[in-house]
Amino acid sequence: MHRTEVPFAKGHGAENDFLVLPDPDGRLDLPAAEVVRLCDRRAGIGADGVLRAVRCTATPEASAEEAEWFMDYRNADGSLGAMCGNGLRVMARYLVDTGLTPPGTLTIATRAGTRQVRVPHRSPDFQGEVTVGMGRPRLPGPDGIDVTVAERRWPALHVDMGNPHAVVFVDDLAHAGDLRIAPIVDPAGAYPHGVTVEFVIPCGPAHLALRVYERGVGETRACGTGACAAVAAALSWGRQSAAAHYTVDLPGGRLRIAVLADGAMELTGPAEILARGTVNLGRRAAA
């Protein structure tokens, strides 16, 4: 099969890793199978997802006039993703450090709406902290959601961060099991398109730790929207007292959450580009 070389970058935010495909003119059409191949950790490059960076003027999905760039996020199983806090930071780091946009405050469009991202400077080594405005968490219900792993069952809170989350508080993060398969979420119809599940323990005032099973991916080393959802659930259920700043520890590293006066959240954490090169895409993707 004919294949065409296109540029890519590999990056991560707290070890939540992504492939960035720069596509300013909107020429790439990524079939789900191509995304799965790219994200495969044996037969592909390996990643938790793909970030296609496309100018808003080149894609009908981006209707925001104030944004120059659109984050076309794909989960590792090829499904579309609406929002990804770690991915958005990695993409912004790439755009700034490759000179595609100047440092400062960027407005980037996503399927969950526009987000403000602050990249304070161009980094000579393609790394450094980046902050993204995540918006206000929504607690739309329904009540009565439960999460089951093996013989354990917990009540869950539905938190919407532009993507759906079911947050549970556990006594020990090991109780989540090996997370090689998705936890059972009841009722079955509560999340018809799947859900990301957070297993959370309080570690002290304004300090949480968690593990995450991401829909369309599996267990990931970190999740930005999941960290925000965990803080929102902790506040809603009284597991944490109200504070302006929270620390969230995940297997891949530490993220910081600022809760603003209006309830909106800002997510700050590492964003690092590890490698750049070219990758072969199939004829359809590189059309």
From TrEMBL:
What subcellular locations does the record give? Cytoplasm
Q: Does the keyword Oxidoreductase apply?
A: no
UniProt keywords, alphabetically: Amino-acid biosynthesis, Cytoplasm, Isomerase, Lysine biosynthesis
Q: Where is this site: Could be important to modulate the pK values of the two catalytic cysteine residues?
A: H165, E214
Q: Which GO terms describe its biological process?
A: lysine biosynthetic process via diaminopimelate
Question: Which SUPFAM superfamilies does the UniProt entry name for this protein?
Answer: Diaminopimelate epimerase-like
Q: Which residues form the active site?
A: C84, C223
**Record note on quaternary structure:** Homodimer.
Q: What is this protein called?
A: Diaminopimelate epimerase
Which organism's genome codes for this protein?
Streptomyces marianii
